[in-house]
Write a structure and sequence with these properties.
The chain has 321 residues and is mainly alpha-helical. The protein has helices at 2-5, 30-57, 64-92, 100-133, 138-141, 144-167, 187-191, 199-232, 237-270, 275-300, 302-320; strands spanning 9-11, 14-16, 19-22, 97-99, 179-180. Helix 3 (64-92) runs antiparallel to helix 10 (275-300) and helix 4 runs parallel beside helix 8 (199-232).
Length: 321
């Protein structure tokens, strides 16, 4: 490791290493955990591919709501692909070195698609808010054109914030260490290794955390506060249950995405988090969310259940012929 830390290329006043060393988990039998993540990745790819195929194939899914669901599936699949194959290659095949430029690319794509999940969950919360609070105006407000504009703004908003964050990393000088105490090119552990002024990077990291995590979470919670108010106005329990059922899949996905991330961040405000605990928590949440989302949608959404039944009926007819 000492030879790794001493390998640098000096460029004028900035010291940029040719590579970083991703430390990963420093615990016995860590490889079994990475094998588990490999299994999670395979299930994620299969599940998300099926949901994408279903939305593309079934005409009844060609609606604004399922345009947003498709966007979430793309974010899930892309985040898993940006994170887990790299992680497997690094820690199962002892290839923990990553070039400086590849590290910046890895940082951008992992954060971009993870943040896109958060933003898309907020868009889906808005869709449910309009559907339950303004049911008669839903089709006038949530049109295909309106949803396309919303999702375009989400992609642009996410891109600008993360390009700005990642573009500030090359202004740092790394003369202390090249060992990143994480499982990917994590922004926080990297800017903390800098030996020049990193205040701009700290501020940008905080701004991105607020704008890409806390604000979407707050807007999602606020949407459900208004939805709860609308539910109390529904006279029958049957009507309330039907409305709640339309939100159940989304609520479960929100809980799975936000709870692990927010719990580790909130805990970090009060006491130092051991690196292995932080890596296990964040890597598990980033890997498990893309796997669970398609399963939740298939099991909790009547439209998907009907589509699966239709597929089986077609298959039986084809076999009988």
């Amino acid at each position: 490791m000492n030879s790794a830390n001493s390998t640098f290329s000096l460029n004028a006043t900035l010291v940029h290493p040719p590579f970083f060393f991703i430390s990963g988990l420093s615990m016995p039998h860590a490889k079994y955990y990475y094998v588990f993540l490999c299994f999670v990745f395979v299930v994620s790819v299969l599940g998300n591919s099926f949901v994408m195929f279903s939305i593309h194939k079934e005409a009844s899914f060609h609606t604004p709501k399922y345009m947003a669901v498709f966007n979430l599936v793309v974010a899930d699949l892309a985040e898993s692909t940006a994170l887990i194959p790299n992680l497997i290659a690094m820690f199962l095949f002892d290839s923990q070195y990553i070039s400086f430029d590849a590290c910046l690319a890895n940082m951008f794509f992992v954060y971009f698609f993870s943040s896109l999940q958060s933003l898309t969950l907020t868009v889906l919360a808005y869709d449910r808010l309009v559907a339950i609070c303004l049911p008669l105006r839903y089709h006038a407000i949530i049109t295909m054109q309106a949803m396309a504009v919303i999702l375009t703004v989400v992609w642009a908003y996410d891109s600008v914030l993360l390009i700005l964050m990642v573009s500030l990393v090359p202004r740092l000088s790394f003369c202390k260490s090249i060992v990143v105490e994480s499982y990917f090119c994590d922004h926080g552990p990297i800017f903390r290794m800098a030996c020049n002024n990193n205040h701009v990077n700290i501020i940008m990291g905080i701004i991105n955390m607020i704008l890409l995590l806390y604000v979407p979470f707050f807007l999602t919670v606020l949407s459900y506060v208004f939805i709860s108010g609308a539910l109390f106005k529904i006279a029958s329990w049957e009507g309330r249950f039907k409305a709640i059922k339309t939100c159940s899949a989304h609520l479960i996905m929100v809980a799975i995405y936000y709870m692990p991330i927010l719990s580790i961040y909130m805990a970090g405000l009060f006491f130092p988090i051991q690196p292995n605990v932080r890596i296990m928590n964040t890597s598990f949440s980033k890997a498990i969310t893309p796997m669970m989302n398609p399963i939740i949608y298939v099991l909790n959404t009547e439209e998907f259940k009907e589509f699966i039944k239709k597929l089986f009926r077609r298959k039986k007819k084809t076999q009988q012929k």
